[in-house]
Task: inverse folding
């Protein structure tokens, strides 16, 4: 990934000079480095070698102890629920883990077309029928009206840190308009702590990721007040029911309900 990261780091000053007040997702150091109007994911999907390498890096991160999907399983009380809509759910690794732990759950994974095509194949080829049959895929653009109405849970894992405030509000608003009372939106992402309140190791990771989001997407990792601001902008009735940071996890599970 050095072929991507090194030019991006070197282009931070250029990006700030070129777009000093912009929060636009294609006004990042990445765009300055590669002279493109495409967002990072849009760009690398057109570069097969880089895309494959990036996928391997993401797989390695996903299986690291502090990003392990076991934290998603333990971070919320899934028992007794029926249907989960997993927005931007990629090829379904998170749903496999949840299905193994909670066999009564069913899942609709929503993502862009080429991810949906790949995911449906991967799930069918690598899992028993009892797992594969409870996972469906659906093409979906999360900037459009939510297609799944009345799911028990709408899960957005590591979605919002790729987007600025305005776009995050749009994504969440589309989700909330399809949910009812007593249903849940789960946001699994970083909740940045106040300086000096966590270990130096964890703080270094949080701060470096925050800078990384700015470099790649012109976005950020948010503290709790940042998450509350998004909720308030979407619907003043939205309330944080709980924030759970499983032991050993870098990320937290934010349980949001309509109050």
Result:
């Amino acid at each position: 990934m050095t072929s991507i990261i090194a030019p991006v780091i070197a282009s931070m000053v250029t990006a700030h000079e070129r777009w000093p007040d912009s929060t636009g997702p294609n006004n990042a150091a990445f765009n300055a480095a590669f002279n493109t109007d495409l967002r990072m994911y849009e760009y690398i999907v057109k570069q097969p070698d880089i895309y494959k390498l990036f996928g391997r890096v993401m797989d390695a991160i996903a299986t690291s102890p502090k990003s392990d999907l076991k934290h998603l399983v333990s971070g919320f009380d899934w028992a007794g629920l029926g249907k989960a809509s997993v927005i931007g759910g990629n090829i379904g690794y998170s749903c496999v883990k949840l299905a193994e732990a909670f066999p009564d759950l069913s899942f609709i994974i929503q993502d862009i077309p080429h991810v949906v095509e790949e995911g449906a194949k991967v799930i069918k080829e690598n899992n028993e029928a009892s797992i594969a049959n409870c996972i469906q895929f659906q093409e979906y653009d999360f900037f459009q009206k939510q297609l799944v109405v009345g799911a028990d849970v709408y899960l957005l894992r590591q979605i919002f840190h790729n987007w600025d405030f305005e776009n995050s509000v749009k994504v969440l608003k589309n989700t909330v308009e399809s949910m009812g009372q007593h249903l849940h939106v789960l946001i699994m992402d970083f909740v940045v702590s106040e300086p000096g309140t966590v270990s130096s190791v964890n703080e270094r990771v949080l701060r470096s990721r925050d800078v990384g989001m700015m470099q790649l997407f012109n976005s950020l990792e948010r503290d709790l007040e940042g998450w509350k601001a998004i909720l308030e902008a979407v619907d003043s009735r939205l309330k944080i029911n709980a924030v759970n940071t499983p032991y050993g996890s870098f990320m937290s599970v934010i349980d949001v309900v309509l109050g």
Summary: Residues 1-62 form one domain. The two ends are 44 Å apart (CA to CA). Residues 55 and 61 are 10 Å apart (CA to CA). The mean pLDDT is 93.
